[in-house]
Amino acid sequence: MTTPVIRINPAIDAKAARDAYKRDGFVQIADIFEPHVAEHMARMIETLTYDLAFQGEEDKPVLLTQEEIRQQGQQMGQRIRNLMDRTGDNYGFLYQSYPLITAYLTGRDAGHPIHRLTEWLNAEFTAFGAFITDEPRVAKADGQLTRYRPGDFIGLHDDVGPEDSHRLTAYTLGFTRRWRSDWGGQLLFHDNKGDVSRGFVPRFNTLTLFKVPQLHSVAVVAPYAKVHRHSVVGWLRDHTP
Ligand SMILES: O=C(O)CCC(=O)C(=O)O
Ligand SMILES: [Fe+2]
After folding, report:
1. Phi, psi torsion values for 91, nearest 5 degrees
2. Stretch 225-230: mean pLDDT, rounded?
3. For ligand 1, atom 2, which residue shows the shortest CA distance?
């Protein structure tokens, strides 16, 4: 079977999406890919081997390969308990990640079609994002695949990264085939009273774009969720390295 070329579904009404983003600082676009393209991407996203990402001891993100996790042995459980403690007091996250740009640059999974996704993110997708957000400074996209298992989450944050991170807009491409609304895992937006103003269930073949900064979180995935929450996530950035 030939690998389909990744491209945005030509049936998308980009003008309507642009109007919605301008109005709300947020837009969700269903059926962002044609079905055969979405299926190809979902298969890659579901089958690659991921690392473990969490907020580390010095409040710096940590990424451990499966091999590194094995080497940690019993220590790993204590590190995760410490993470929960820190998250309760401050901020934390826990999920599986496949770092697209690093993988591309270091030759990880050499020859794998996932690298066509990384190239597409920095070609058609970046141009599409610049159009929808009406933000000519958008020059590139970083990205990671994320997999949330039961218990995984991201605490409350606003996506303002380190000073030099140049994040203009956050994006997610949802690849969760089925979800039930009591399985957690929603992308939640929080208002300044602590109420959740909007919550979005994980979806399949759906692009979400939202303006940075906005307070949001990913709700803890329920212990009884039957599937993993899969997406491609990252930020559209300006040209600064
Ligand atoms: O996966 C999502 O829906 C949002 C992810 C997110 O907020 C982040 O990675 O900063
Ligand atoms: Fe975020």
Report:
1. -140, 145
2. 98
3. 187
| pLDDT given for residue 59 in this prediction | 87
* pLDDT tens string 18-73: 999 999 999 999 999 999 999 999 999 999 999 999 999 998 999 999 999 999 99
The ligand 1 atom nearest the CA atom of 159? 10
Q: What is the ipTM of this complex?
A: 0.99
206 lines ligand 1 (CB under 6 A): no
DSSP 153-208: EEEEE----STT--EEEEEEEEE-S---TTS---EEEE-TTS-EEEEE---EEEEE
**Cα 175 to the center of its chain, rounded Å:** 10
Pairwise CA distance, residues 167 & 235, whole Å: 6
Ordered structural domains, the chain, with CATH: 14-48+99-237 (2.60.120.620)
* φ and ψ at residue 221, rounded to 5 degrees: -75, 130
DSSP output for 38-97? HHHHHHHHHHSPPEEEEE-TTS-EEEE-HHHHHHHTTHHHHHHHHHHHHHHHS--EEEEE
Residue 158, φ and ψ in degrees, nearest 5? -125, 10
Peptide bond into 150 cis (omega under 30): no
Q: Is 13 helix (H, G, I), strand (E, B) or coil?
A: coil
Give percent above pLDDT 90 in the chain. 95
163 φ, ψ to 5°? -50, -35
Which value, in Å, is the radius of gyration of the alpha carbons in the chain? 18
Whether 216 is in the pocket of ligand 1, judged by its Cβ within 6 Å, is: yes
What's the pLDDT score for residue 1?
63
